[in-house]
Write a structure and sequence with these properties.
4 domains; Beta-Lactamase; Sigma_54_int_dom_ATP-bd_2; alpha/beta; nucleotide-binding; HTH_Fis; DNA-binding; Rossmann fold; Sigma-54-dependent Fis family transcriptional regulator; five-stranded antiparallel β-sheet
């Protein structure tokens, strides 16, 4: 049967089912029909078509299992627990990754029958390959569901009845699926409902265990409604950064937050959710020893418990501040601020996290490339592994090879007797950040390309290569495309490093520059109570910042040191901000003007024009301090032509 799909749209699913699949017992709407529509229209499949089962080779299975080692280790207990409860009833239990590849399975004693149906490790259940099925449709929809017998798209799968629940990570992304399938179930679909509830329960348990593993070095909260029987599978879990912002949550927390229409959960402050900050919650919970009762959204009374990292659990005699208990590295949300372009880039980043894609960060010097690389590492599943940074421009060419690849004892004259691990080996299981990748020597580009292609390294003097499992993030301020044209950078290496490009705007280009200035100011020592007056803020926001964030930090530290009574005025700013014209785009330039200045104001305006608005030169001519000159300009309402009103 051939399908004409060009005139059928998802708005007319009832007609779609009636026209094409009248012989199937399909519901007229819902997730299953939507999946059938995708199978036909988007994936070009036919229900009666012959589709060879896609089973990975032994080597490919080993690679996938190694890559998902932590996930499988944590989920394994849940898979076994579910199998013990449903295996005697004839169910096979499968655990998949986010691509629908079966990583683990538990089948009844008559395992060959299930293998014939594809219920084995290495089988692929992506909806694009086999159409509507439990794992594939669970991943595509992000919903728990039952696909019963002829609800499967392919005729060859209509013996199966599958109950499936997706498994989510702490960022709300689908991590995989838990599936229980039986063969030749002659009962109604409703008879599988209890199995589905068991699958959902074990999926939530796996999620919570994976959450606790991912955030074992982070301050986490456990939240449940008061007066209800404890249901650990549905307990809300939140992970917080040093400012009390949510950096991770389990599925129950995401669902609860969405149910009450509170917008995006990640990045929200604890004080917005529960009305208390981290320090207050630590006090109420006695450092994690007690449970506190709080109101969520002024309505629901909830019990809140704390889990604190063992390494930094406070003693009874001390009350450390929350900032000393939690990792201080900024998150992706904090780094993106309120700049719309950066927020969009970060949203794309989250979609490719843990997808084995290398990331290339472009940006001017000082825009925070390493800070973004660290934030990417902390947002990934590799956060518990090492983050290793290597600046390719800061190491002499003669040393960079040993720094990157390492060597073994006695491999050359003068080598350390103990040998030395290279950055690649140290980063195994974590993230390697290659800063200023454009400065890497040509012969090392070739070696790095081979390492990335083969996923193994051979330190100098080593007998056997070492398998490599790393996330590679590289960064440069150079125009790599032009370097490729100039034959100074390998084109094939560029494509190995450029799975996704993150373009960081210069500070002067950020739409939230004032917010960035205020945030950076709060981070400087002694600046807790400092404020910036309007004139100085105008100077700061209009300046070109050739050194970007790095230069801003130095300027604000200088301003804090110069401030009187915690008040930063223009006299506290370095001379380059006062004397140099504004850089780059900005609001329309205003004409200088004078209000009721009299002769003194006119003379001052003329002097400013004569010196082309060089504040230092005018102050010297009048023999006054620059701060006095600024006060005179304010008195007579003199506005420089490059500042605006």
């Amino acid at each position: 049967m051939s399908f004409q799909t060009t005139q059928t749209g998802p708005a007319d699913l009832n007609a779609f089912v009636g026209d094409y699949f009248a012989d199937r017992s399909l519901p007229s709407d819902g997730l299953i029909v939507q999946s059938w529509y995708r199978s036909v229209v988007e994936h070009g499949l036919e229900p009666a078509g012959l589709v060879n089962k896609v089973i990975l080779s032994a080597a490919e299975i080993h690679h996938h299992q190694e890559f998902h080692h932590d996930y499988m280790s944590i989920a394994g207990q849940g898979v076994s627990g579910l199998a013990r409860r449903v295996g005697q009833a004839g169910f096979a239990v499968l655990l998949s990754d986010e691509r629908g590849i079966a990583l683990d399975s538990r089948v009844p004693a008559t395992g060959s029958v299930y293998a014939d149906s594809g219920l084995i490790v290495g089988s692929r259940w992506d909806e694009a390959l086999v159409g509507t099925n439990g794992i594939g449709t669970g991943l595509a929809s992000g919903r728990a569901l039952i696909i019963h017998r002829d609800e499967h798209f392919l005729r060859e799968n209509d013996r199966l009845s599958c109950s499936v629940s997706p498994i989510f990570d702490s960022l709300g992304n689908v991590r995989g699926c838990l599936n229980a399938s039986c063969l030749n179930s002659n009962g109604p679909k409703a008879a599988q409902y209890l199995t589905l509830q068991l699958v959902i329960m074990y999926a939530r348990m796996i999620e919570n265990a994976y959450f606790r593993h991912s955030h074992r070095n982070t301050l986490t909260l456990m939240i449940k409604p008061c007066g209800e029987l404890s249901d650990l599978a549905n307990e809300q879990l939140l992970a917080l950064d040093e400012e009390g912002r949510v950096i991770g949550a389990n599925r129950s927390a995401f669902v609860e937050h969405q149910t009450h229409g509170q917008g995006i959960l990640l990045g929200r402050k604890l004080s917005d959710l529960l009305g208390v900050d981290v320090d207050e919650l630590l006090r109420l919970c006695n450092g994690g020893a007690n449970v506190a009762r709080l109101r969520a959204g002024q309505q629901r009374l909830v019990e809140v418990g704390l889990h604190m990292p063992v390494k930094i659990r406070p003693s009874r005699s001390s009350e450390p501040a929350a900032a000393s208990l939690i990792h201080r590295a900024p998150t992706l949300q904090q780094l993106s601020g309120d700049d719309a372009r950066l927020q969009q880039s970060v949203a794309r980043l989250y979609r490719v996290l843990d997808k084995d894609l290398p990331i290339l960060i472009n940006g001017e010097t000082g825009t925070g490339k390493e800070a973004f690389a660290r934030a990417i590492h902390l947002a990934s599943r590799r956060r518990s592994g090492p983050f290793v940074a290597l600046n390719c421009a800061a190491i002499p060419e003669s040393l960079i090879e040993s720094e990157l690849f390492g060597y073994r004892s006695g491999s050359f004259t003068g080598a350390s007797k103990k040998g030395m691990k290279g950055k690649l080996e140290i980063a195994n299981g974590g993230t390697l950040f290659l800063d200023e990748i454009g400065d890497m020597p040509a012969h090392l580009q070739t070696r790095l390309l081979r390492v990335l292609a083969e996923r193994e390294i051979s330190p100098l003097g080593a007998d056997t290569p070492l398998p490599l499992d790393i996330q590679v993030i590289s960064a440069t301020h150079q125009n790599v495309a032009q370097m490729i044209v100039d034959k100074t950078f390998r084109e094939d290496l560029f494509y190995r490093l450029n799975g996704m490009t993150l373009q960081l705007p210069a500070l002067r280009e950020r739409s939230d520059i004032q917010g960035v200035i205020e945030t950076v100011l709060r981070e400087q020592p002694g600046a807790e109570n400092c404020r910036i007056d309007a004139t100085s803020m105008g100077l700061l926001t209009r300046y070109g910042w050739p050194g970007n964030i790095r230069q801003l930090i130095n300027v604000l530290r200088y301003a804090v040191a110069m401030a009187d009574n915690n008040w930063i005025d223009s006299d506290c700013l370095p001379v380059e901000l006062l004397d140099q014209p504004a850089y780059g785009p900005g609001p329309p330039l205003s004409r200088p003007h004078l209000v009721d200045g009299g002769d003194e104001g006119l003379r001052l305006l003329e002097t400013l024009r004569r010196h082309q608005w060089n504040i230092t030169a005018v102050a010297d001519e009048h023999a006054v301090a620059r701060s006095t000159l600024y006060r005179m300009m304010k008195k007579y309402a003199i506005v420089p032509p490059n500042r605006g009103i």
